[in-house]
Amino acid sequence: MSATMLLLLGAALTFGAMTLALSVIGVTNSERRGVARSIGAIQALDSAPAALKQQELDRPFAERVLGPLGDRFISLGRRLVRADTATKLQYRLDVAGNPPGWGVSRLIGLKVLGMGAFSIIGFFYLAALGLPFMRLVIITGLLAAFGYVLPNILLNNAGQKRAKLMRNSLPDAIDLLTVSVEAGLGFDSALSRVTLNTKGPLSQEFSRLLQEMQLGVGRSEAMRAMSERSSIQDLKSFCMAMVQAESLGIPIGRVLRVQSSEMRTKRRQRAEEKAQQVPVRIMIPLVLFILPCLFLIVMGPAALSMVEMFSR
Fold it and tell me: In sequence order, which ranges of 183-251 are alpha helices (DSSP H)?
């Protein structure tokens, strides 16, 4: 047996011994409580009606087994992460639009699950390849770190896609809002008109803003909350302009008209900036792929003719 396998075997035995010792200590300390809980559960199960027993047995496997397992991952993750991690994850969820089924607790559990899964699978796969021990430990640590940050990467990707959609549809939404206000509608009615006639993440944000105002939240507080939920600078400036207009008594229609013109100017500038980046981005495929093919097609027959002539 090689030295690497002996080291791996020793590490596994040490880990198993530590786990067994901690388990024995935990069992010794909580034996009475565990027995009491088990007796209580058996008595409750015996005294429960047959319908409740059948209902408990008919629950899906995910709710009976995977749910408690996920709760254990979540509790472990909350011990590993920092105190401000939950706040940062909640902000990223707000930027991504709070996708269904995503939450702070579930993200923390997924981070722990990804770290454990990537590290274990990577460790056994690399150990089977016969890599040196130090390289095996380093690569396993990198895989564990990647599994830990993978939920953050997916969440940031979703937030960037949503922010791009909101940034592109913001000028049209503000135009519709401006026309509605100048036609005589109030700001709340104009927001309702925008949410009914538009679709996408920006319409969802305006709908949430309208719901908060209908629930009694002040317009300034609701606008500030929408600004804090977003990472788009244009939307933040629009919210701050509306807050200042309300505090200073400036007509909303005039502010909306200025904001609409500014948003369209910024969108045109972004389009011009991307158009100017096209020659730089196309240079790499042009030099690596297109020009060699052109040289081959143009100079190939001449090179063959020259080779044939000199060979004669």
Answer: 187-197, 201-214, 219-229, 233-248
* pLDDT (tens digit per residue) in 35-48: 555 555 555 555 54
How far is residue 242's CA from residue 158's CA, in Å, rounded to a whole number? 28
pLDDT at res. 288: 85
Distance set, CA 130 to CA 12, 123, 278 (Å): 17, 11, 47
- Topology adopted by domain 163-269: Receptor-associated Protein (1.20.81)
Which is higher by pLDDT, 108 or 256?
A: 256
Residue 47: what residue type? S
Strand ranges inside the chain, DSSP E: none
* Calpha distance 245→254 (Å, rounded): 9
How far is the C-alpha of 284 from the C-alpha of 240, rounded, in Å? 42
List of long-range contacts for 172-181, beta carbons under 8 Å, 24+ apart: 172/198, 173/198, 173/202, 173/203, 173/206, 174/238, 174/256, 174/259, 174/260, 174/263, 175/260, 177/256, 178/253, 178/256, 178/257, 178/259, 178/260, 181/252, 181/253, 181/256
Burial (CB < 10 A; 0-12, 13-18, 19+), residue 103, is middle
Q: How far apart are alpha carbons 224 and 236 in whole angstroms?
A: 8
Quick one: average pLDDT of 168-183?
87
Q: How far apart are the C-alpha atoms of 204 and 282, rounded to whole Å?
A: 37
Angle at 66 between CA 64 and CA 67, to 5 degrees: 70
Dist CA 171 CA 264 (whole Å): 6
Q: Which amino acid is at 209?
A: L
Output the CA–CA distances (angstroms, integers) from residue 231 to 38, 79, 193, 234, in the order listed. Answer: 50, 29, 24, 9
Report helix, strand or coil for 59: coil
